[in-house]
Amino acid sequence: MTDAARLAVLAGRHLDLVTAPFTLPRSRVLVFRADDGEGVRVHTSEYERRLSECRVLDALTVVDAAGEVLPVTGVHPARVTFGDVATLTFADPSTLSLGPSTGSGAGVRVRLRRPDGRVEEHPLGDGIRLRIAADRSVSIESGDHSAALAASDEIWADWFAKCPTVRDDLQEMTAFCWWVLGANIVELPSLGDARAIVPSKIGYVGLWQWDAYFIAVGLRHGDPELAREQLDIAFRFPQPDGQLPDVVHELGVLATSDDLPDSDRDNLRRAGSQIADPGAPVPLTKPPLAAWALRKVLEVEDAPEYARTQLGRIVRSQDWWFAGSDLDHDGMPEYGHPYSSGLDDSPIFDGPLPTAAPDLGAYLVRQDLEIAALLERYEPDVDVVRFRERAATTQELLLRMWDDERGRFLAFGGGEPQLSDTVVGLMPLLTGTLPEPIAETLLAAVGDPSRFALPWGLPTVAASDPDFSDERMWRGPVWVNTSMLIAEGLEASGYAERARELREQTVRLVIHGGGPHEYFNPHTGFKAGRATTAFGWSAALFIDLAVTLS
Ligand code: GLC
């Protein structure tokens, strides 16, 4: 077996058809285990639509000559096997192919139940194909099944040939995470044949701005070109004032509160959010970590022309934060909307908006320094003094958010201090230039079992905080991206050993939790109830951490 074939088999062990569906790079078709355990069901993956709205076939079963339904007996990235009699694969991104595993499929039938309840049967014969149209209708065709199998095998063999080699104990999960990145590739019709890696084909079908950064950071280890493509798509559609959109999706971009889908507004209303129905459109973006991601992607493979194009876009977006999002004009930009922080329901947004937050301050300091360094390398004629000066000014303003008595950085909502003790307050470690007593205090917080040192990692809200919940999204669960950023911050602040421990703990969590889920319960180390699975940045950052640790 080649290495790629071995890695595909390792990844296949995790394809349970529940948390990880059968799919293909570029495909919008998802195959899950059927709810009654008999056969599979087929869905499409669409922007801001629930899976239950995207039904193609409620059941697809394979029935042998004796009339017995054949169970799913094996799942490999390129094929699902039914009772060793038939296999299912892709003929192309919108066409499934079914055919006999060996010999002929004489007497074997394929039974389909459509969402309207209609049931039909087709003889398997030498193979049949199910072509799934954009309106989710299915048409039956004939076709060469072995050619489809060979083509799918080749797609995954090419994909796994790029999977990074890591420490033995991390290799199997790295293979699965590499599968997640490949499986999450979609085409966005508005972008020609560009390949966007979505956060999740179950739930987040678009290219989210900061997800793209984290995904690129993991992807760079095996496919730097595709990593560059993610950043290019993310940066390609700025608003006229330079602001980057929150999401690039198949219908356009999500760049202001006016672009929010109805489902999202309803959620905000239900949560009683003050920002559900703003008087004027509020810009929506994601945290300024663009230059950080670009630098990391360029580290593995240089691309000067590309770097110059992207840098121009990043500089405009960084300038936008100061020109367009310093809403109280005190020099320190704010989040005008919780979504722009990426930490949607963090308790720092329970108070009035806009919110000045220590993570934003830290990211902005870091981004100005990253920009200066990148410009010195790629645009030696450009004067970078203004970026360094702005970083110093922002850092001063950031230090004013330090509350000496409480020993914490505080966020300010509508000018009022927000007392919740969250991971946001640890992010200033990322600047790497905090006064030593402050850095030491944050280090102690990271190691404090009553606050951030929980059994399975670093929670997004301190366990001792009244707002802590071990299940609610950004109100306590462990996220791989915030853990990874804090590890970088610890390293940048001179605590390399503590950074390594946090990285080890984070990869252990993903393995224990059974995969790169969206977020994890910090007490059990398992997926939080409402978290999605096969999640892009958890997969990508697992890979990045695994490579760093190997
Ligand atoms: C959620 C997260 C946000 C992320 C998005 C897509 O809204 O809060 O940070 O960008 O999902 O994954």
What does this molecule look like?
The chain starts with a helix and ends with a helix. The mean pLDDT is 96. Strand 13 and strand 14 form a beta hairpin. The chain is of the alpha+beta class. Helix content is 36%, strand content 17%. Strands 1, 2, 3, 4, 9 and 10 form a six-stranded antiparallel β-sheet that branches. Strands 5-6-7-8-11-12 form a six-stranded antiparallel β-sheet. Strands 15-16-17 form a three-stranded antiparallel β-sheet. It folds into two domains: 156 residues, no CATH class; 388 residues, Glycosyltransferase (Alpha/alpha barrel), CATH 1.50.10.10. The radius of gyration is 24 Å and the shape is elongated. The structure holds alpha-D-glucopyranose. The site of alpha-D-glucopyranose has 7 residues, from helix 4.
Specify the structural class. Answer: alpha+beta
CATH architecture of the largest domain: Alpha/alpha barrel
Shape, per Cα inertia axes: elongated
* Domain module tally: 2
Helix content: 25-40%
| Ends apart, CA distance between termini | 24 Å
Overall pLDDT: 96
The number of helical runs is 14
Bound molecules: alpha-D-glucopyranose
Proportion of strand residues = 15-25%
Low-confidence runs of at least 5 consecutive residues: none
